[in-house]
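Folding Task

Wanted — backbone structure
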Amino acid sequence: MRFPFYNHASHHDTKPDLVVSLPGIQLPPVQESPNWFDICMVMEAKAVQKQDPFGKAGQLHADTAIQLSISARNLMFAHGFLFVFVFGIYGDVARIARFDRACAVVSPPIPYRTRPDILRRFFWRLVHPSVGHTVVGADPAIRRLTTEDVRLVREQLEAIEWDTADLSDAEMLKGRRVTVPEGQVAKDAPTRTFVLFDLLDVNARLFSRSTMVWLALEDRRDVKDATPPKVAVLKEAWHQIIRRPETEFYERLKHIPEDQRVGLPQMLCGVDYGEREVKEWRACGGILPRYGPDGEDPGPPVPSTQAAEAPPPDEDPVESSTEEQDVASHSMHTQDVDPLPSQDADPSPPLEYPLPYPQYQTHTWRLLHGDKHSNRERSLVRIVVDAVGRPLTRFRSTREMIEGFRDAIEGKRIFCDRFLARDLS
């Protein structure tokens, strides 16, 4: 299976042994050309337990772990997942790996023959998310495009005479509908919905900013306005939380006088989803465990009061463990959970947030090692800007192409004269 957007990145093909469809989608028993957009999980199977790669050195074991990571990356890009689970089966044991944009953690070996209830409960919870739809890890701000969405987009692009000759329906269906809040305020803030129909660029690395840049149209089906929408550009990236989000730079660009703005877009809306969610989560009493100087764990995470309904009570209870493995560094990390909170923990109000931890900002490094590793964590930022002209690939004359390069260079100069920025993509 190729990278889902293979027109932009054709590296790292993978051949998963088993795939799990999205809820409500029935796959044929044998697929000649499987599609990343119809599946939510993959499984890699090895014959014996000694082929379990985790906690072991050597190129063969590294290649086995990389197999899982490639599938995890492809699933996150195809669906816009915030994090994803993949399965490794090694003889009589299985491992569940959770990948996000900062690292991966892996469960202890699960003896699925003698404890099938663990996997049964995992899969039940996977398809019954407390937040969002489809599966755990799906971004609640994203919806998959339908053929009706594609038809409407084509009509709107034709109305503004936008060239769609190079856009096939199959490629447009890889797009998505995204809801973007208007500012870093409460969850009840106004939102705008955009239909992403053409991927311009993608950073296909797994543990990175994972930048995606799309052409978009605002979804105005419910707005009684005959004015055709304008094409915009939506950019999403997982920036390091120790860096300034790009939304701040665009806010400052607004102060440049119009007669001096050349080649610079205007931000229509944009938000750091992670920062916004963390503020709401903390207001509900959410805290990360506070580690002492020796890295000791002060207690379990704050529980959620709105977790998904549990499976039927006749099933066996699941034995929990917090042993986790960092795939990125191939080293094991085990945390012994104290059943009581730390004595110095501040009292907090009952948690009303539906999840124990935020989804739009990674937190695994801080959970395992404390705040000293917060520089490794990432937060999702989405920015929508107006399109400045047309893509360079669609120039109508040599003069127009050269003028486009000139304005882009001038816009970059104006930006660099006012900002000293890094970690931008």
